[in-house]
């Protein structure tokens, strides 16, 4: 059985909200973090994120103008001039173009949504790198690799990431080249479903199978945690494009569910 669309989307946004809003109170104040639930939808604000990446809403099981408007108001009240909506394409209503125009929502980046069913034990992957769970004393090293690879270099964002290591419902993994941590990846466990989160490899270590090995380790970790499914998101491929992350996941046993447009809200 394929993971239900609503559960897949809710697991993704639950991971983002817990990752950010689960930070210690001093960091939440410093970074301007807040979250809100509107029905099935969860929305997240991280005001001091210059990229805007974490300012998002998702988890839709249905789409209504009232819910969308309440989330837009939440973004605005949080001091944002822009935010993002992740909505599975099958949930967009017939009058979506009118609604999007009414709320000033425009098409932005596209993501591929994938899922893996954990009916059997995931296959292991041989690697010359050492793959292991991240321990509490390695949290800063883990966070530095993850955030620097994604372009978040401020101390507060690294502290935010480090605070997640060892948190309930999270498992963090890393790949080491001798004593050097060179790649990372996490899972967030949401009941029967887990979300692949934050896979990143330092530039010098790419091409050595780190993420394939980390995918296998994380799938095993999710199965051991009692999950039935694992979901993941990565950039969708356009004509002539190749996303290595996407193909790594397909080789690991993931199935492509759909491509999803990010709908960008801009304040007017």
Automatic annotation (TrEMBL):
<dbReference type="InterPro" id="IPR016181">
    <property type="entry name" value="Acyl_CoA_acyltransferase"/>
</dbReference>
<feature type="domain" description="N-acetyltransferase">
    <location>
        <begin position="129"/>
        <end position="268"/>
    </location>
</feature>
<protein>
    <submittedName>
        <fullName>GNAT family N-acetyltransferase</fullName>
    </submittedName>
</protein>
<dbReference type="Pfam" id="PF00583">
    <property type="entry name" value="Acetyltransf_1"/>
</dbReference>
<dbReference type="InterPro" id="IPR000182">
    <property type="entry name" value="GNAT_dom"/>
</dbReference>
<keyword id="KW-0808">Transferase</keyword>
<dbReference type="GO" id="GO:0016747">
    <property type="term" value="F:acyltransferase activity, transferring groups other than amino-acyl groups"/>
</dbReference>
